[in-house]
Design brief:
The two termini are about 25 Å apart. The chain has a 17-stranded mixed beta sheet that branches. The protein has helices at about 30-40, 45-50, 90-100, 180-195, 235-245; strands at about 1-10, 15-20, 60-65, 75-80, 85, 110-115, 115-125, 130, 135-145, 150-160, 165, 205-210, 215-220, 255-260, 265-270, 280-285, 290-300. Strand 10 (about 150-160) and strand 11 form a beta hairpin. About 20% of the residues lie in helices and about 35% in strands. About 45% of the residues are buried. With about 325 residues, it is α+β, with helices and mostly antiparallel strands. It binds pyrrole-2-carboxylate (PYC). Pyrrole-2-carboxylate (PYC) binds near residues 60, 88, 89, 229 and 235.
């Protein structure tokens, strides 16, 4: 019987599963090389951790790795039901709270290697976590898309550690009971974004007015595997900040509260990137909570022991 040890948490509603033992040996190369080795040689491991019967479509996995740089706390490769993520804001907060649970860190600054660069996370005394994300920027403004039915909608393409299409140009209410409709609309938008020449965009962020008067905006984020983000999405919030900064609608250091479709919040702000005129350095703060400490079992006799995935189709 093969075993894998994981610690589960949720960050403002969105689950993270950190693999602390029993993961594949990805050797000591750079994080992008380790992510590629994981994808090429160990994709069945991703399926075991994320897919049913042990996981769910909402889950983001985080494989804890030895860092290359001694200055970093750890390395991490994030993955989900569709493949691998460059960075994951909520997942980084989940990872930090997992390290607290393991007794490995105290409040203060911690550096983490990811496949898209080093991110810094600050564990605050109240156990909330601020993530200083990778440089973020808008690639295209006011892109027009023709969606089925002939309607033209507009939105921006931006990078926040993952690629997003951000769109306020919809007439859907951003509420949980509308989740099916929002998902269908976002999938339609994603197809249209790809046709419009942005095949790398794999997250769709629909934005609108918040419910809470403490927040500035509410979002619905469609993730690559078809699930929606239960949190306000750290990389999606970073992409939003990049657009606001370029439009001159949010100044460096000014707070921005992003609300999720579940009503949870991230507080965010940005600094200008001194090395790139058009890039910003976002900082996102939220809370994560441990939900389980589990050993996963894989019985070689189990016909779906490696998880139900599209390959079973
Ligand atoms: O928080 O960056 C994030 C994220 C990406 C996908 C799901 N959550």
């Amino acid at each position: 019987m093969k075993t894998i040890q994981v610690i589960d948490s949720h960050t403002e509603g969105e689950p993270t599963r950190v693999v602390i033992n029993g993961g594949p040996d990805l050797e000591q190369d750079s994080l992008p090389e380790r992510r590629d080795r994981f994808a090429c040689n160990h994709d069945h491991f991703r399926s075991v951790v994320i897919n049913e019967p042990r996981g769910s479509e909402a889950l983001v996995g985080a494989l804890l790795c030895e860092p290359q740089s001694k200055e970093c706390l750890c390395g991490v490769v994030f993955f989900n039901n569709a493949g691998f993520l460059g960075m994951c804001g909520h997942g980084t907060m989940g990872l930090i709270i997992t390290m607290v649970h393991l007794g490995r860190i105290q409040p203060g600054m911690h550096q983490i290697e990811t496949p898209v660069g080093i991110v810094e996370a600050e564990l605050h005394q109240d156990q909330s976590v601020s993530v200083s994300n990778v440089p973020s920027f808008r690639e295209a403004k006011n892109v027009s898309l023709k969606i089925p039915g002939g309607r033209i909608i507009h939105g921006d393409v931006a990078w926040g550690g993952n690629w997003f299409f951000l769109c306020e140009d919809h007439d859907l209410e951003l509420c949980l009971s509308n989740q099916r409709e929002l998902t269908d609309f976002a999938i339609m938008v994603r197809d249209a974004v790809h046709e419009a020449g942005f095949p790398k965009v794999d997250h769709i962020e629909l934005l609108g007015a918040p419910e809470s008067d403490q927040a500035d905006s509410r979002n619905f984020v469609l993730c690559p595997g078809g699930a929606y983000d239960r949190s306000p999405c750290g990389t999606g919030t970073s992409a939003k900040l990049a657009c606001l900064a370029e439009d001159g609608k949010l100044q460096a250091g000014q707070p921005w509260i992003q609300e999720s479709i579940t009503g949870t919040h991230f507080s965010a702000s940005y600094a200008r990137d001194p090395q790139h005129q058009n890039r910003i350095l976002p900082k996102i703060r939220g809370r994560a909570f441990i939900t389980a400490e589990t050993t996963l079992f894989i019985d070689e006799k189990d016909p779906i022991g490696w998880g139900i995935s599209r390959e079973n189709d």
